[in-house]
């Protein structure tokens, strides 16, 4: 890889590049799904290729190829420079990058058991055992389970002097039970909806979930939703579980603090942001107990790595401190535009895509409210929402509505009756300003998200969010029905 990457960079320089970097990515994947006692699908795949970014004449150029050969190294580097030269003739401004040192390093994510060495039979045995347990509960119409695994090896080199090799493994698994009545399905998921639990780690992370051990509970809750009353439409106190709060952080804090959106560079597809670059250090994003951090160094998180796709080291970056805007997710280019250094948030979806600003592990830091049980006990009246079902948010990430799979009313510090179709709505700074309690470190965990879309053509990023349950006052719930 060193010889190959050096030949790419040499060819780019010879063609006139002022700056160049190259990423070589080798991936293997496998996924399995079952439904109602039958294997629904088994897929495996592999991908190997490289992408080259250059700056020539103050403009970017990018080219990529699945042919990792000496001939392709020269050809693709020259193509990237040719694209940059063409772009420079119509560019509105010259690209400027924040400084970064050159690094020679290796990094690997934690993995005890390589999941791609675990037999298909063993994976299906666990999924079908959970499926059987869910269908044993009377009233369950559909039982589903899935697993997926990814192993990646990446090499990065740049004319800034870096040569970095990284490797990691990702594993995910989950189950869903559905009960149907009057043409409407009620789902309960474990450990989370939208793909289950997603981790940077090996088979050990999937085994620890004990999918069969949670299957009956999930199924019984799905069936109970059939006869549960509707969530009342009222302004009340809302407690969100950690998984729903993780998605709330993702949509209303993570995305609007991506600096390319703030600067208007992402307006075409994913929208812009309600936040301005000049708000740094003064904007009140939430209450004084709201502290949010972007951290690419947390072991086992989908948002962790050693270096981003510009060769910037992984960092822990404050985004909101005591309710006040304290930082952004940035690249070398966007950071330079406002006089900062990169936060190390540039990643690409594969070798054939140019990097974009993506979230790392953007987390609501734990508070001092104790456990979820203690938080509920401290709440006289309200509702507790669990597990995301749907979401809607405007392109500035300001006005939103979220739906969850299930909720329970809270009366005098105790969970009361289950209610269905729980929804809540809010305006981002008002909602976070209403946060008056966050559970403590023991209740905090990282939730992986492997389907974050952004860019044109769209790229899917694997990110994560740490959260413990939290309480919000005066929230409108029961909307949309």
Keywords:
39% strand; eight-stranded mixed β-sheet; five-stranded mixed β-barrel; 23 strands; 481 residues; PmbA/TldD fold; alpha+beta
Helix content: 10-25%
Distance between the termini: 57 Å
Please, what is the average pLDDT? 97
| Gross geometry | globular
Number of strands: 23
What assembly state would you assign to the polypeptide chains in this entry? single chain
Provide the number of structural domains: 2
Number of helices: 10
Question: Which regions are unreliable across 5 or more consecutive residues at pLDDT < 50?
Answer: none
Q: What does the largest sheet look like?
A: 8 strands, mixed
Radius of gyration from CA coordinates: 24 Å
Q: What fraction strand?
A: 35-45%
Structural class, please?
Answer: alpha+beta
Summarize the SSE layout with pairings.
Elements: H1 2-15, E1 19-35, E2 38-56, E3 59-65, H2 70-88, E4 104-108, H3 120-135, E5 142-158, E6 163-181, E7 184-190, E8 197-200, H4 203-207, H5 211-227, E9 234-240, H6 242-254, H7 259-262, E10 292-295, E11 316-321, E12 324-325, H8 332-337, E13 346-347, E14 356-357, E15 362-364, H9 372-377, E16 381-393, E17 399-411, E18 414-419, E19 423-427, H10 428-433, E20 435-438, E21 445-454, E22 459-467, E23 470-477
Parallel strand pairs: 4-6, 9-16
Antiparallel strand pairs: 1-2, 1-5, 2-3, 5-6, 6-7, 6-8, 9-23, 10-11, 10-15, 11-12, 13-14, 16-17, 17-18, 17-19, 19-23, 20-23, 21-22
């Amino acid at each position: 890889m060193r010889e190959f990457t050096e030949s790419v960079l040499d060819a780019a320089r010879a063609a006139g590049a002022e700056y160049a970097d190259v990423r070589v990515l080798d991936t293997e994947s496998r996924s399995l799904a079952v439904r109602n006692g039958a294997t629904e699908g088994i897929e495996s795949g592999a991908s190997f290729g490289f992408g080259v970014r250059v700056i020539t004449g103050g403009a970017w150029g990018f080219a990529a190829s699945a042919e990792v050969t000496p001939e392709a190294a020269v050809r693709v580097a020259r193509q990237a420079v040719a694209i940059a030269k063409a772009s420079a003739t119509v560019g509105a401004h010259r690209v400027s990058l924040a400084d970064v040192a050159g690094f020679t390093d290796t990094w690997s994510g934690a993995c005890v058991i390589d999941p791609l060495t675990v037999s298909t039979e063993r994976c299906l045995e666990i999924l079908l055992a959970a499926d059987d347990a869910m269908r044993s509960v009377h009233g369950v119409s559909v039982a589903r389970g899935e697993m997926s695994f990814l192993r990646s090896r990446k090499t990065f080199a740049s004319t800034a002097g870096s040569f970095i090799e990284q490797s990691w493994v990702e594993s995910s698994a989950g189950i869903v039970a559905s009960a149907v009545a009057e043409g409407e399905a009620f789902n309960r998921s474990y450990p989370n909806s939208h793909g289950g639990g997603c981790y940077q780690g090996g088979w050990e992370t999937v085994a620890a979930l004990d999918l069969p051990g949670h299957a009956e509970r999930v199924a019984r809750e799905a069936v109970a939703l059939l006869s549960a009353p509707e969530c009342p439409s009222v302004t009340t106190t809302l407690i969100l579980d950690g998984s729903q709060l993780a998605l709330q952080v993702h949509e209303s804090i993570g995305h609007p603090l991506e600096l390319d959106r703030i600067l208007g560079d992402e307006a075409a597809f994913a929208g812009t942001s309600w936040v301005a670059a000049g708000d740094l250090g003064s904007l009140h994003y939430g209450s004084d107990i709201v502290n949010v951090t972007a951290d690419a160094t947390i072991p086992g998180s989908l948002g962790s790595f050693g270096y981003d796709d510009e060769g910037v080291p992984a960092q822990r970056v404050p985004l909101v401190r005591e309710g006040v805007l304290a930082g952004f997710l940035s690249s070398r280019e966007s950071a330079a535009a406002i006089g900062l250094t990169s936060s190390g948030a540039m990643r690409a979806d594969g070798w054939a895509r140019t990097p974009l600003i993506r979230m790392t592990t953007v987390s609501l830091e734990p508070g001092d409210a104790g456990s979820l049980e203690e938080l509920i006990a401290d709440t006289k009246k309200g509702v507790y929402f669990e597990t995301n079902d749907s979401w809607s948010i405007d392109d500035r990430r300001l006005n939103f509505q979220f739906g969850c799979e299930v909720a329970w009313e809270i009366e005098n510090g105790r969970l009361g009756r289950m209610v269905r179709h729980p929804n809540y709505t809010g305006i981002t700074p008002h909602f976070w300003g209403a946060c008056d309690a966050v559970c403590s470190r023991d209740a905090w965990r990282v939730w992986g998200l492997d389907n974050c879309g952004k860019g044109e053509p769209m790229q899917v990023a694997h990110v994560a969010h740490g959260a413990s349950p939290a309480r919000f006052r005066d929230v409108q719930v029961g909307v949309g029905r």
